[in-house]
Amino acid sequence: MPTVWDKYWQETKFDDELTINNLKNSYFWQGLKKRIGSLKNLRIIELGSGRGEMSLLMALEGADATLVDESKYALEEARKLYKKFNCRINLIQKNIFDVKKENFDIALSFGLAEHFEDEKRTEIFKKHYDLIKKNGIMIVSIPNARCFPYQIYKFLAQLFRMWKYGTEISYSKKELDEIAKNIGIKKHDIMESSFLNAFYHFLIINPLKLFGLNLKERFMDTRFLNKYGYAIIFIGEK
User: Staple 42 to which of 81, 105, 211, 231, CB 3.0 to 4.6 Å?
Assistant: First the structure.
């Protein structure tokens, strides 16, 4: 996996302002902010962080952020990003399973757990849990097994050998409930991301852009539709 991701971070170009503004205005971030509340002076750690874009939003709200990633290229991109937004950051280049237990307020990851198989799919959740203090929370965002726009996109990308993310296995709510039970997490919630955003991004983003249309501005999200959104966000408390 490090080789796959080193290649990804070396080859991918980013529009920092656009990316952060889109995240800041996203259905996902607004819902997460309501759930967490104030982030001022909270210690957070992001595992398999890449550039740590979500942690950057938290840092801009006053959190003390630590990023952990095996890829030196990812952490170098993170350093550049945080400098651009005048934010301090603690960077650790290490295998996430080698990070020692600590008392963080929040342990999070976005797009990490789905890259593991078998028992590691539970172990990665336990690693988040072990890093938080009593009353701390863990936030794990993973692809939703019910998101058919994503599944179609992934199938076609793999079929035409355009898939560049290595092993990626989505999660179901049932599996997440079982993981919480096995770890001993007594209280957990599951948030859903926008289905219309996933539909727009994975299936028809290019044709719509050709005509200058934006599906997200023309339709409302609904609870029924969002159960098919791209991400499901597991939030567990200690």
Answer: 105
